[in-house]
Amino acid sequence: MIQSMTGYGAAQHVEDGVSYALEIRSLNNRYLKLSIKLPEHLQFLEGDVDKLLRSRLVRGSISYTLRVRSEGDVGLRSINPAAVQRYVEQLSEVQTPPGTAATVDLATIAMLPGVCDSPELNEGARQHQWDVVADLTNRAIDVLIAMRREEGQALRTDLLRCCEAIRVRLSECKARAPSVIEEYHERLKSRVAILMQSGGFELEAEGLMREVAVYAERCDISEEIARLGSHLDQFGGLCDREDQVGRTLDFLTQEMLREANTIASKSNDAAIARSVVEIKGLIDRLKEQVQNVE
Question: Based on the structure, what is the number of domains in the chain?
Answer without folding.
Answer: 3
